[in-house]
């Protein structure tokens, strides 16, 4: 049941319904926290944190690029435009 609630929270977060997503994450912690594994509890807490960040970024879009070095980003974009196959390698580092 907890996994389904977390999945619903992610889906609502992706479609922009932040209040509903937050309710699902909190419901996981309220109802099932005694029988949940540590990983699921941590995942619910991360979902709540991500929800808070999404709401902040929605209000002030400049927060997204505030700490981003745009010079480096433009260089990477230029590299990927020259050879799109480099993009696959770059994403594989994150998985």
From TrEMBL:
SUPFAM superfamilies: TPR-like. Keywords: TPR repeat. TPR repeats lie at residues 2-35. InterPro entries: TPR-like_helical_dom_sf, TPR_rpt. This is Uncharacterized protein.
